[in-house]
Amino acid sequence: MNIVGERWAIPVMRELMLGPRRFSEIENNVDGISENALAQRLGSLEAAGVLVRRTLPPPAWEHVYELTPWGYAAEPILWMLGGWGMQSPLYDHSRPLSATSLMLSIKVMLDREAAASLTGTIRMRLNGEDYYADLTQGDIEVGRGRPENVRVTISGEPAILAGWLFDSDEEAMLAAADRLAVEGDLAFAMRFVDCFHLPEKAPLADGQDRQQP
């Protein structure tokens, strides 16, 4: 807890789970973090051995931050936190969602049994950047980068795609689908969407207001 319990530690680690990121990329995807706070947290995580800073080869010459093998080993912790968070009775769907958060959520929330008959790669173009979900008979691998041999491409904002995949309200799901661009095997995309079944929300405590922040 001395390492991951510090403010912003988990969100920063989350953004690095799909590979190295520049300082500005982390800052843009961790909602609410300041430049100074990010610099401090990157420094403390580096000192703890969770991540390293390295310089890209020429012509880039830019600094990037990357998790160490021990840092990547924390991924199951994020899975557990993500699944637990999905059960929050007060979860606010309007909060910003980064593309990495969405991809990790896809990996956590996929019903492996329902996806057992699916094999193929889905390219996701999120906020102008390429991501992918590679399905093989119930197994899934997600990552950042443009994949090959794509069956379907889905383009849009992470929060909109999350609404299509995860919203339990059919009208909301259809409204989200209308705001996405889908190219390729639409039937495969629809079967993929059907593989997500969110857990029931935890009950509110007596007297607790569902509208509170």
Put simply, the count of helices is 9
Mean pLDDT, all residues: 91
Q: Assign an overall shape.
A: globular
Unreliable residue stretches = none
Q: By CATH's scheme, which homologous superfamily of the largest domain applies?
A: SCP2 sterol-binding domain
CATH architecture identity of the largest domain: 2-Layer Sandwich
Widest sheet: strand ordering: 5-4-3-6-7
Helix content: 25-40%
Strand content: 15-25%
SSE string, helix = H, strand = E? HHHEEHHHEEEEHHEH
Which class of secondary structure composition applies to the elements? alpha+beta
Spatial gap, N to C terminus? 25 Å
Number of domains: 2
Question: What's a concise summary of this model?
Answer:
Helices cover 37% and strands 20% of the residues. It has helices spanning 9-15, 23-29, 35-47, 69-72, 75-85, 99-109, 158-166, 170-177, 186-193; strands at 51-55, 63-67, 119-126, 129-136, 139-144, 150-156, 181-184.
